[in-house]
Amino acid sequence: MEPTYSDMYALFEQDPAAEAYFSELPGYLQAQIRARKHQPSSLDELVRMVEEADKVY
Prior knowledge:
This protein is mainly α. It contains 4 helices and no strands. 11% of the residues are buried.
């Protein structure tokens, strides 16, 4: 099981791969993730949120 963090910014501090993944996303997907009340706390959760947000567009 991968570690989880309090929010995506804490995640990015501890997991450079998650930050790199997020920074390569199109701006509209980054905005969708940032706008969520619940922030991703793991890379798996971030990927899942991106997939969900991408289905909307």
